Amino acid sequence: MITKEVYVEIEVLRKHGFSLRKIAAEVGCAVNTVRSHLAQGKQPRYQRQKKRATKLSTHETYLCERQAAAQPQWIPATVLFREIRALGYAGGVSQLRAFMRTIRPQGAADPVVRFETAPGEQLQIDWVEFRKGADPLYAFCATLGYSRASYVEFVTDMKVSTLIDCHQHAFEALGGVARRLLYDNMKTVVLERDVDGPGEHRYHAGFLDYAKHCGFVINLCRPYRARTKGKVERFNGYLRRSFYVPLISRLKQAGLPLDAVTANAEVRRWLKEVANVRIHASTQVQPAQRLQEEQAHLQGIPPPWRGDIAAARPLDAPPPVEGATVRPTVAERIALPTPEQHPLAVYAQLLTQLQAAAEMQP
Known about the structure:
single chain; alpha/beta; Nucleotidyltransferase, domain 5; five-stranded mixed β-sheet; two-stranded antiparallel sheet; 13 helices
């Protein structure tokens, strides 16, 4: 039996229009083997010849009956685990989860077609929400379609001014501006879709002005099809698993909260040392390596935008109220010194010093 990797290669070659004979020559197997596996329409899976008795075997009928009674809903494995433990089950939850996967109804597969773009053609943009409430934390994520090189910036709001600032920083970090930027239906970009016909959208005036200033075209995902920007969507999950969860757990063990300053100091190092130098699963090349090629096709980095919208004041505008705190503009924030990338121990030491100083106050 051919391996899963060979099967995937057969599928890809067939989609590219290769003949059965050509595919067989490429993967090194017989033409009949190629024809047989394409006719099956699914990847080959190893089938155990004889099922072994397990600790769960005596409870399988009970589990099937419980799920059948719950249809069309689905009872979580954690709930059933508690139930069968009370009935004498002595195994683990992983064995239960494995069995549940074999009896769960499989919905119709939604085919995902991956579109590759030319260098410098597309940059995909998205927000990731990590924390709500009085102390929110969001991440602005931008991923180039060709190289898969990414930029991340943690912020505490998703206003238009913040979005524009993040774009400017992303262009500088990535070395230029793509010709097309892809978004979902965020209100800071598009206010209303198809107002004057298909594709005739009403954009946020300030952001549209910024797009013209930078020279990129705004593209929108189809409604309820955020998967259209799948490259940044997949990166968002990777960011959460590989960066956020490990960082927040380390800070929790040290008794420290995670703020945007700390997150940005750490994510810059993570992007440089981990994310953009890993071998990407789709391209099989480091994003940083392909970025060097893609940068030659990007547009130049624009100067700081001087537009005036409700959420972003002009560069020379005074504070609206005397003594009020005003968020720095793009140019002002770029002029600020970049925080050094310190290990978490430095943050812990700094917090201890601040607490000690506070206790000494009268």
